[in-house]
Each structure stands twice: as structure tokens, then as C-alpha cells.
Amino acid sequence: MPTTINESAIETSFEYIHSRLPEEFKSVKLGIICGTGLGTLVETIDPATKHEFHYGDIPGFSPSKVIGHASKLVFGHLGDARTPTVFMVGRFHYYEGHTMQQCTLPVRVMKLLGVETLIVTNAAGSLNPNQKVGDLMVIHDHIFLPGLVGNHPLIGTNLNSFGTRFPSMSDAYSYRLRRLAFLAGHQVGISLDTMHEGVYCMVGGPSFETSAESRLLAQNGGDAVGMSTIPEVVVARHCGIQVLGISLMTNAVVITRGRNAKKDVLIDAGLPHDHLAHEEVERDAIVANHEEVLETGAARTADMQRLVKKIADLLVTDQ
């Protein structure tokens, strides 16, 4: 994968794909990025219309090395309305060693393919006690920690053919699309008690957050935390693409302080310890792990499939 991205590199990727597509997919309006464990969303499309490109064959793309990411670009008709759609089954992650520009190259390619609406899904850890494992969170805002310290996909020469030098992110997540997501959930029988709106925080990864880092995010308005999504959203908005983000809560983030070693010693020694009344928890029992992320993704697959198909159908009727 190249270390820098310019219009020529994006055009090369686009031409490779576009020249091999049948006429019905020469222009697609809907794009979907499938997050960890959610790649089975592509199974919702009509297999007779499916066209696949492996990342390793596309100039500028690179296979993902993360379990749960199949590394292919798939075209097909989605939902009852048979909406021509491009699926990104597996994404590039910053923690794999890619630059932010490399991670977001596929979004630029989607723009050239005609995509006007992008649905971005991810697996995330819940920072909000009201969001349980298995719940869905419709993203209404984000905190981009890598971007705030300079690891930003728009750093460098602006690609003027795609967008302005200083795009606004205050409206990154479309109200219209968020409303359609909840309407779709209701119509396919997903309890709205298990669907929320919230703020998604991106950390660089690949390590899961410490409890102190998690408290920092939660205390500053974060509802969920993950290692992706925001760079793609930023570039999509730079391109003028409307965005809907959906996070699947696959684990509860450890926020409590854990056992206080000094307090335990004081207790054992029979010494005063009330001034060290920190909240205690057996941390080992709730440590985050990738296996839990995959298991939860698999368990909620059917709901995610029904939800995304219905959103696609509502997009057609809501024009």
C-alpha cells in the first residue's frame, strides 16, 4: 500500500474496480463499511447479483490482518428495494501500521463510484452503563483522539477535487439518517430499549483502554469507544457524503479503579484504612478481549442484517 495518497492513486483504484463492474453497478448510491464481526451483513444481498474484489487485487488496497475482517469489496442489490450497494467487508486500521490517508482511501473510491450515503458499522466498548453488551448505538457525535493530536486523514495537501480545506464536523452524522435508523429498528421488531444515541470515541489501539483512560472518556461525554470509524467519517464528510454510524456494544469497558493494594495491606495489618475507600472490583473477571467482541458480533448478526436492509429500503422511499 502506498505511503501517500493523491488524486492519481485514488483514480487508479477506482478505474480498476469500475472497469470490471457490470453496467448496473457502474454507479452506486449506498456504501456500507462492515466492522469487526459484522462482515456477515454482506450475506443480506442477492447472491445472483454479487460481484467481489479482494483487497489484495485492488491497486492501493491491502488485506486486513484482523480476525473478523474478510478483506473484500462486494457489490450487490440490498433489501426489498434492491438498492445497488457497495460493501467494504473489513476495513484498514491505523494500528495495523497504515496511515490515516491509507485507512480512508476506500471512502474516496466510494465517492468516485457515486456513493451519496455511507453506513459505517463497528464493534465498540460501552462507556455508558445504560448501554448493555449487545445493544446498538446510533452515533450522533464523536471524539477523535488521534485526530486531536495530529494523526488526521486530512493532513497534508488538500484534495480539492473532493472537498474544502476546512470541512465542518459539527454535522458529521445526519439527523435524517439517525431518525431512519430508529424507524427501521422499530419496523423490524428491534426493541428501541436496546438502541441508543451517543458519542463514539476513537483511540489508536490496538491495546484496549486502561480504566483511567476509560474514565477520562466517559467523564468527557463519551458513550462508546473503539479503534476505527472516525477517519472514514471525516473523509466521507469532506467528500460531501452523508453518514450514518452504528456501533454494536460488544463489551463493557472497565471504568472502575480496581482493588486498592495499599488498603488491602492496611486491612491485613489491622491499621486504619477508611481514608482509602476506593471502589473495588476484581478486574480479571471483566477484562476486555477480542474473542468477546467477535462472539457478541455473531450473536447480534441477524438483527444487524435486518436493520441495515430496512434502512436501505427506507432510503429509497424517503427521497
From TrEMBL:
GO BP terms in the entry: nucleoside metabolic process
InterPro entries xref list: Nucleoside_phosphorylase_d, Nucleoside_phosphorylase_sf, Pur_Nuc_Pase_Ino/Guo-sp, Purine_phosphorylase, Purine_phosphorylase-2_CS
E.C. number: 2.4.2.1
GO cellular component: cytoplasm
Pathway: Purine metabolism; purine nucleoside salvage
SUPFAM superfamilies with a match to the protein in the record: Purine and uridine phosphorylases (SSF53167)
Alphabetically ordered keywords of this record: Glycosyltransferase, Transferase
One annotated GO molecular function: purine-nucleoside phosphorylase activity
Transferase listed as a keyword: yes
A Pfam family: PNP_UDP_1
Source superkingdom: Eukaryota
Domain Nucleoside phosphorylase: from-to ranges: 29-258
Similarity comment: family membership: Belongs to the PNP/MTAP phosphorylase family.
Function: The purine nucleoside phosphorylases catalyze the phosphorolytic breakdown of the N-glycosidic bond in the beta-(deoxy)ribonucleoside molecules, with the formation of the corresponding free purine bases and pentose-1-phosphate.
PANTHER family: METHYLTHIOADENOSINE/PURINE NUCLEOSIDE PHOSPHORYLASE, PURINE NUCLEOSIDE PHOSPHORYLASE-RELATED
Subunit structure: Homotrimer.
The name this protein goes by in its record: Purine nucleoside phosphorylase
Species this protein is from: Absidia glauca (Pin mould)
